[in-house]
Design a protein that fits this description.
This protein is α+β, with helices and mostly antiparallel strands and 271 residues long. Helices cover 26% and strands 21% of the residues. Helix 3 crosses helix 5 and helix 6 crosses helix 7. The longest helix has 16 residues. It starts with 30 loop residues before the first helix and ends in a 7-residue tail after the last strand.
Length: 271
């Protein structure tokens, strides 16, 4: 799955391509990093845990256990669906230096035209690889909405105007966790700023900071917000740094070499 267009003060920002279901962790980490991998959660939710959070087991509804995007799951709006991200849709607006910002979980019928249009912007398409018919974007959105709640696609609305697309996801339960020393409840963010006029003027940094703080405010079990912009996309990396993320390491993902960016709860008031 894809990801991130944060704008620094110069140039368009990317959309890091999310790691796919295959690949191997980078061997460039330190010994301490490798030891930290012991904290990584199993990428498969045990049947017992699924039974607790959904009221059933994968086998009971005909699904084999596995990664969220490898199989269809129960739609998020059905009773009994697990909530792995603490009800993103109820978080409400955040006041930012650039205006009132609201993350609204995507409604395909309402939001597909605008999101599909953004995906066909060449600067976005180079990273998200979702240019083409609206059906391609729709498949991408519905795969998350019909999953088990590990990723929530959202429309970013600034002062009442839709202007960005976000994915808030459980990085510790994502294939990304195979590539860095993940910790329980790590939460990842992907972002694209939709309109060219909104890029390159600092909006990306302001909104990244606001959303990261929103995650930490509403997910008490989460100690870190993570992102993985392409290492060569200097404006995007700068945007994350300006948003209070720290550069943690380089990681080899299936589609790119990425900069692992982390915003720590313990450092949020210092950076």
């Amino acid at each position: 799955m894809p990801p991130t267009d944060a704008s620094a003060d110069t140039g368009p920002v990317p959309v890091a391509v999310r790691p796919g279901p295959t690949g191997h962790p980078s061997r460039s980490g330190t010994a301490e990093d490798i030891r930290d991998c012991e904290d990584t959660l199993d990428l498969r939710l045990p049947g017992e845990l699924l039974a607790l959070v959904t009221g059933t087991t994968p086998e009971a509804d005909g699904r084999a256990p596995g990664l969220a995007h490898e199989r269809p799951g129960r739609p998020l709006d059905q009773p009994g669906s697990p909530d792995l991200l603490d009800q993103v849709g109820t978080w409400g607006p955040a006041e930012t230096p650039v205006g009132s910002f609201h993350l609204l979980p995507v409604q395909v019928e309402r939001d597909l035209p605008v999101i599909s249009g953004w995906m066909n912007d060449p600067a976005v398409a180079a990273f998200w690889q979702l240019a083409g018919s609206p059906a391609q974007t729709e498949d991408h959105l519905r795969a998350q909405l019909a999953g088990d709640g590990r990723s929530v696609p959202c429309l970013g609305v600034l002062d009442g105007t839709p202007m960005s697309y976000w994915e808030i996801y459980r990085a510790d339960l994502d294939p990304l966790a195979r590539h860095y020393p993940a910790r329980p409840h790590d939460t990842g963010v992907h972002l694209l700023v939709g309109d060219v006029a909104d890029r390159g003027r600092g909006l990306g940094s302001a909104l990244l900071r606001a959303v990261a703080d929103h995650v930490l405010d509403h997910r008490p079990a989460c100690a870190r917000v993570v992102a993985e912009p392409d290492l060569h996309n200097t404006p995007s990396v700068a945007a994350f740094l300006n948003a209070g993320f720290r550069y943690a390491s380089e990681v080899d993902l299936p589609a790119k070499r990425a900069a692992l960016m982390i915003r720590d709860r313990s450092l949020r008031h210092l950076m």
